[in-house]
Amino acid sequence: MDKLKDLASKAGGNKEQNPPAAGGAGQKDYVDKGLEAGEKKFGVNVGSGTNETVTDKGREMFEKGTG
Prior knowledge:
By secondary structure, this protein is mostly helical. It has helices at 2-10, 30-42, 48-66.
């Protein structure tokens, strides 16, 4: 759980509830849903804007590493 908090704080860390950016409005993929499920299980609420930033950065790093 501490790793999740650290990752979120490094990726933007604000705890404001931000609406999703236009273009991705309301659409969540499996990574977004998985992060939300983890937050719910551990009782952590980071915020949707930060979640998007974390999952987008993670996806970007994965794609960069795997090609």
